[in-house]
Structures are given as C-alpha cells and as structure tokens.
UniProtKB/TrEMBL annotation:
This is Tetratricopeptide repeat protein. Residues 15-141 form the Thioredoxin domain. Residues 1-30, 145-166 are annotated as: Disordered. Transmembrane segments: none annotated. Residues 15-30 have a biased composition (Low complexity). Coiled coil: none annotated. It comes from the Bacteria. Gene3D superfamilies: Glutaredoxin, Tetratricopeptide repeat domain.
Amino acid sequence: MTQQPFSRPGAIDLSGLSQPAPGAGAPSASGSYAVGVTEQNFQEVVEASLTAPVVLVLHSPSRSPESTTYADDVATVVAGYEGRFLAGLVDVDHAPQIAAALQVQQIPVMMVLVDGRPATQPIPGVLRSDELSALLDQLAQQMTAQGIGGRHQPRSNPVDVDGDGEPDYDPRYAAAQDALGDGDIDRAVEEYQKLVTANPADVEAAAGLAMAKVLQRTQGVDLNAARAEGAAKPDDVEAQTMVADLDMLGGHVEDAFNRLVNLVRRTTGDERNAAREHLLGLFAAVGNDDPRVLKGRRDLMSALY
C-alpha cells in the first residue's frame, strides 16, 4: 500500500447539502465508534473531527455490495482504536449529495477528516485490514506528535441491566464522587484520572475529570482580581482561560465558550493551540451532546478557518 501524505488541504464544501433529500433513510452502522452518515447529520460528523479524526467510507449497497462489506470492515478496525478514530459510513444511495460535495467519482472510497478537513487524499478501492491498520497507526502517530490526543465518545447506549429505563449506577465512579463530596478536589482529580487512564473512551470519567480540573484550577482564586486581569489582558491565554473556568463554575457556559472561541480567533501558533485545547476540555466537561457544545464546536471551526 502506498503511504498517504498527512496534510491539511482545504475545508469541505458543504453548500451542496443545504437542502437535504426529504425522507432519506439513515444507513445502519454497527460498533461503538461507527455512525451512519446522512445528509442531515453530515455537518455534525464533520465537526466531530475537531475532537479526533473521522474515517469516512462511501459505499453503495446497490451498485457495489462488496463496498458495503468493506465499510463494515473499516468500522471493525476503527473500533479497535477505542475512540482514537470514528468511522463515518456513507451510503451514497441514501446520501448522493454527500458524494457530490466530496467530489467522489468511484465507490468505495475512504478519506480521513481532521479539524473539519481531509487529512489524506481520497483512498479508492478496498484496503486489507492490515493495510488499513498501518494507515491508521501512521496517522495516530502523526497526530500524537502534533499534540492532538482527543478521543470520540462511544456511540453505544448506557447499560440498563434492571430494565427501569435508567442507566445503572457504576461503582467505579464512587471514589471520585466521594472525594468531591468531601471537598477534596485534588483526590477527585486523581480518582478520575485513574479511570481515564484505564479506559480513555470512558466518557463519564473524562467529563468528570474535566470538571474536576476546572474546580482544581480555580481553588483559592480571587474572582474579582481574575476578571480584572482578564479585562486588562484580552489576548493572554492564561488570564482568559481562568475567566472561562470561572464562567463555567458560575453556570455561564456559553460565555466561557465564546470567550475562548474569540481567543482562538485572535491568536496563532502555540497560544492558539493552548486556547483550543482548553476549550475542548470545557466541551468535555459539559458533554458533547449538549446543544451549547454543538454550537461551540461550530463556532470553533469557524474561528480556526
């Protein structure tokens, strides 16, 4: 297999998706890290690549049944990376406008999205599982070298063992929650970090860790002094992220997001990356399904490009 260059070419043109086909059905996607992509949720899947890479596979059950088998195989390989990638399976029979927006000429074809943009040239045809793993390993290494280590949330539902319609209590979180109850923020961070280290795809633990770190960073901080410093230093990453943390604690979630989005827009280089990473941490604390986070991700993408 020829190695694909890792790059950041132009953003995807979504103009062709302004009027989704009515009644288009959603293709099925199996696995915790796979999603069936439709014209309605395509923008959301593209935005998910702000967190971690998205592996898009375009296939057609009617024109090429083997392409659909290949899409399922890609989802299986992606699942082994436990959130480092998300497989987005596009049934072009149901979503022809996506194929048009991506200028796809043949089926199957695979491409990897990072930060809302293609990170590789389109890869036509069927790759063997070992070839696909080699490609994803290479991309994962390059992303790690660039300091990008985000992971996707699993797409499976919480377990409801007793059938009462509510996710069952998980004792794994007891130690961290007890620490928070005792006001021991440092211990809570340690307990949540243990859970995240053991399973980086544990969304609840990651959210708990992110929020515990907000509490940890703001311990003993003088609110008025921090806000005064933020007003005096509008482009200082440390000052602005502190005010954003305080906004989060005060329940002003959108203010926190907007502050850091605007900081990303005004900064460059390491400062921009630090602001972006801090904002992604606040997204994790709130939860990726929250409407405020979905809007924040769209605003972040606009600020980056």
